[in-house]
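2024-03-11 09:14:02 INFO worker-7 job=invfold-0412 stage=load source=structure_tokens
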């Protein structure tokens, strides 16, 4: 603002000087007028070649015409000018800040919820995260690449024409004798050792490092492990995902194992989203008079709606009056309910819940809510909750690193088989 005022005043000063010069030149002799005008034009073009010469030219005119003491003076800065400059900057900063927060408010509280509500594909992508594939798909056929000896890769074809990628990990006590005899793996399911069907959470595949850690712990207590990738995960058939389809994949896998187990105990282990999938699948199996021996839920939630509500990304939005309408309701309407409370309400399967208190993805309070609900509503007395203190730093994924995990699982299996 100050600079603009100074520039304007300088222009006015130059104009006034030029006017005075024109007046002072009027009495000059007529015969020299043309000569002086021509010289003045040449001198003017010479000096006006840049801004500095313009100022020098004005100073020269002032000195030549005796105008040093005239009323034409350049303005001097006053005490008010710095204050005007500061106030101008403050106003600009204020307008910028208000504009930024207004845009952020519109994006976070209006635009994002609207896009979420009316985009089922985005909802499914964020909940299932099946687009997060492992980098080298061809290695699924070679479990030894991941350090998994005594493991067979195979595929199960479901009744709705879906192909599921599966690993079968042998128990420790059978590896030495049968580990390299791949053709005998199916027959060994009826050998008598417990069989655990592993249902992973969203993202990744059966070959994730942390999942392999768990497989090794389970094989060390002489359990078969059947690790399945649902449809659209890893090398399984790619189709549109929903709860019904992904639950049917687990049911088909269980039935495949059930036919070959010939009475050997079959358990389920679900992690994160896999807990909701497993609970739903096992409750439907009971309705078909197929009874699993037990279900282990690692870092579960009671309902997917509560998991979304407690998720760190949605904390900013949860207090908005339109939160349920824009965020929760469309997920339910698009077939992603995963209501573990209702699915286990009438189920007889024994349940072991494992959860770390430092889990920031799914808070352990949701496990407590689930435990309290099913212990008061269902007939099965064998329901156990194990919470890990935050000092162990197991978080959402690393409960398998509990030094006592093998003993806990062995004890649960024994109690289920009594």
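2024-03-11 09:14:09 INFO worker-7 stage=emit residues=418
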């Amino acid at each position: 603002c100050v600079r603009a005022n100074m520039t304007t005043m300088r222009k006015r000063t130059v104009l006034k000087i030029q006017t005075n010069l024109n007046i002072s030149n009027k009495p000059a002799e007529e015969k020299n007028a043309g000569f002086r005008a021509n010289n003045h034009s040449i001198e003017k073009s010479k000096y006006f070649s840049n801004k500095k010469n313009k100022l020098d030219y004005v100073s020269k005119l002032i000195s030549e015409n005796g105008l040093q003491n005239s009323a034409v003076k350049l303005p001097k800065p006053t005490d008010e000018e710095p204050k005007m400059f500061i106030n101008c900057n403050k106003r600009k900063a204020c307008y910028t800040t208000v504009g930024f927060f207004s845009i952020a408010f519109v994006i976070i509280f209006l635009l994002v919820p609207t896009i979420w509500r009316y985009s089922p594909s985005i909802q499914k992508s964020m909940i299932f995260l099946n687009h997060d594939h492992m980098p080298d798909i061809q290695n699924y056929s070679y479990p030894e690449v991941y350090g998994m000896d005594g493991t067979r890769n195979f595929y199960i074809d479901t009744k709705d024409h879906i192909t599921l990628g599966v690993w079968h990990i042998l128990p420790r006590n059978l590896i030495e004798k049968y580990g390299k005899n791949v053709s005998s793996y199916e027959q060994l399911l009826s050998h008598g050792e417990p069989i655990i069907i592993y249902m992973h959470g969203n993202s990744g595949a059966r070959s994730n490092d942390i999942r392999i850690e768990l497989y090794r712990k389970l094989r060390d207590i002489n359990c078969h492990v059947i690790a399945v990738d649902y449809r659209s995960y890893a090398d399984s058939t790619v189709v549109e995902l929903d709860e019904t389809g992904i639950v049917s994949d687990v049911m088909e896998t269980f039935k495949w194992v059930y036919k070959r187990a010939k009475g050997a105990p079959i358990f389920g282990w679900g992690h994160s989203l896999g807990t909701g999938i497993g609970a739903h699948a096992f409750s439907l199996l009971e309705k078909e008079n197929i009874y699993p021996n037990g279900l282990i839920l690692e870092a579960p939630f009671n309902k997917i709606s509560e998991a979304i509500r407690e998720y760190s990304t949605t904390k900013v939005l949860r207090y908005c009056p339109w939160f349920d309408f824009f965020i929760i309701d469309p997920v339910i309407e698009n077939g992603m309910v995963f209501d573990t409370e209702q699915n286990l309400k009438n189920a007889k399967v024994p349940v072991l819940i494992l959860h770390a208190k430092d889990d920031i993805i799914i808070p352990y309070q949701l496990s407590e809510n689930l435990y309290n609900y099913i212990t008061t509503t269902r007939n099965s007395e064998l329901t156990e909750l194990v919470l890990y203190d935050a000092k162990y730093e197991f978080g959402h994924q690393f409960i398998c690193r509990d030094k006592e995990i093998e003993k806990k699982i062995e004890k649960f299996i024994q109690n289920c088989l009594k």
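2024-03-11 09:14:09 INFO worker-7 stage=report msg="The first strand starts at residue 151 and ends at 157."
2024-03-11 09:14:10 INFO worker-7 job finished
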